[in-house]
Amino acid sequence: MSMYVRVKREQQCIFIMCDPTDLVGSIKAKVGAVLKMSPDKLRLFSNPTTPLDETRTVADSKIAYDAVLHLACKNEGS
Fold first, then answer.
1. Which strands sit side by side in the sheet containing 68-73, from one edge to the other?
2. What is the pLDDT of residues 39-52, one digit of tens each?
3. Which among 23, 50, 57, 58 is placed 20 to 30 Å from 3, CA to CA?
């Protein structure tokens, strides 16, 4: 059963289609493809202070349909 989540960063919102069995890392890869950035430079949060473990599934992370995830990008040299 497909679902979508919203990934927000500053003034930007990206809608990503995924399945509950997908890994959080695959969401990072999809966001990276949209932003033309390496997924290694991205970090997803379920709320502004709780990072998501990219080895867990969407369902295991309790990410619901139409959930809002927060995105942080690592700067060069940090």
1. 12-18, 3-9, 68-73, 42-47, 50-51
2. 999 999 998 889 99
3. 50
